[in-house]
Amino acid sequence: MNQSIYQDQQIHEECGVFGVFNVDKASELTYYALHAMQHRGQEGCGIVSTDGEKLYGHRGMGLVKETFHEQELRACKGNFAIGHVRYSTAGGSGPNNVQPFMFNHSTGDFGLCHNGNIVNSKQIREKLERNGSIFQSTSDTEILAHLVKKNATRSRLESIKEALNILIGGFAFLIITKDKLYAMRDKNGLRPLSIGKLQDGYVISSETCAFDVIGAEFIRDVLPGEIVTFSKNKVTSCFYTEDTCHKICAMEYIYFSRPDSDICGINVHASRKMAGKVLAQEAPVDADIVIGVPDSSLSAAVGYAEESGIPYEVGLIKNKYMGRTFIEPSQELRDKGVRMKLSPVRSIVKGKRIILIDDSIVRGTTSTKIVKMLRDMGASEVHMRIASPPMISPCFYGVDTSTYDELISAFHNVEEVRKITGCDSLAFISMEGLKRAIGLNDMCMACFSGNYPTELFDSIKDANKETKF
User: Fold this and answer.
1) Which regions of 69-168 does DSSP assign to beta strands (E)?
2) Domain that holds residue 296
3) pLDDT by residue (tens digit) across 384-396?
4) pLDDT in tens, 249-293
5) CA torsion sign, 124 to 129 to 131 to 136?
6) Inter-axis angle of helices 414-421 and 365-376, to 10 degrees?
7) Cα 71 off chain centre by
8) Model pLDDT for residues 220-238, shown as the tens digit of each residue
9) For this structure, is 395 an active site residue?
10) Number of structural domains, the chain?
11) Whole-angstrom Cα distance, residue 237 to residue 222?
């Protein structure tokens, strides 16, 4: 099995979606938008478009710039399009799971893509297969297509409503037909989805940073439980359920989203910077410099430095040309993986008492190696400050931490984690401090609290299968 040249110890969000309605060269706009959201998934990508008569599509494994060239974009005709970047959590890796999916049906062909995770997918899939459905992928995204096709006697919108009421989990779906585009969000609002205006049409995106790239103007977020339908003559909205609430995933602010994105009206950079300020208030320490782990922790590091009055320095450099590789690395190269990705600046860290800011500690492997690297470069002290609470529970809504075994804080308290990582002191932001930093009281913080906003079905049982008690 081909692997990255270093073992990736980071957490990953499942993917990002983007849609274009009634704008010329829709596939080209989608290409640039997907490129802006490449951080949400590097495994595979795809685009499905329509010229009003038929659907066109292309998808493949790899980065957006590797999968799409002028020929592929020219083949995706029309002024409607949807696109997707993928990092697999549910369903696993492979070309069959790359989205958007395309389906042929007597009621009309359609394309479909999805960001998130459906926690009752196993139960729905088994029932559909018993009733004769044949799946072409192992992705939970395909379940919605089978539910929609099952209700062929009803209108497309009514079929979508009925299908969404069966699904439980966190999701943002886009569906494209030859003359319509549907955008929908789960009833808890766990996964983000925004609408923008461009020329005489509209765009829909997992992150607002994509709007800035293509020159679109943000209008509003798709609301929890809402279905927005874009058709030739009008844009309409309806809700598939009245049982809705706002539970945006806190990790969108902490790690996943780009700093220049606004999620639920709150800028990601500003919330991370405020988290650093709160950390400085909650966990001060005497030191010489503050440094951050590139890239998602830099805003928090700046905030900590400003609040504490301790100088901010660039003490770690990220190799932005690491890229992907398809060679089979030796264990020796894997062990050097973090050093290949991050390099301490010796002249900055040597002899210094360092406050090291990171967004989270998941497995602890990367943190341990970074602390060791800084000590090897001559740091006299390393104090870790984490801009999120300890992750004690798996996520089942589209993040690849689905078992307790993957979470060091599920089995170790703060002092034990400090000893394992080798730092001189360790502190995490409090739950209340994080809420204050982001400016929201009502978010999904299940990975920090174990309090999940939905039923979990077999998910929690499966998460316990391999844990080492």
Assistant:
1) 80-86, 101-103, 110-118
2) 267-464
3) 999 999 999 998 9
4) 999 999 999 999 999 999 999 999 999 999 999 999 999 999 999
5) positive
6) 50
7) 29
8) 999 999 999 999 889 999 9
9) no
10) 2
11) 9
- How many Å apart are CA 356 and CA 313, to the nearest integer? 10
Contact (Cβ atoms closer than 8 angstroms) between residue 37 and residue 252:
no
Spatial separation of the C-alpha atoms in residues 455 and 121, rounded to whole Å:
12
The band of 294, judged by pLDDT with boundaries at 50, 70 and 90, is very high
Count, residues in the chain: 469
Q: What percent of the chain has pLDDT over 90?
A: 74
Please compute, for residue 19, the number of CA atoms within 13 A of its CA located in the half-sphere on the CB side.
30
Regarding whether 133 and 46 lie in a shared domain, the answer is: yes
Residue keyed to tokens 């070309």: 95
Retrieve residue 275's tokens: 């988290």
> 381 has which bridge partners?
353
CA distance 421 to 424: 9
The CATH number covering residue 205 comes to 3.60.20.10
pLDDT score of 41 more than 70: yes
Examine the pLDDT at 329 and tell me if it is beyond 60: no
CB 383 within 8 A of CB 354: yes
Which residue blocks in 388-458 are alpha helix, DSSP H?
A: 414-421, 431-438, 446-449
**Taking the CB of residue 324, how many other CB atoms lie within 10 A of it?**
12
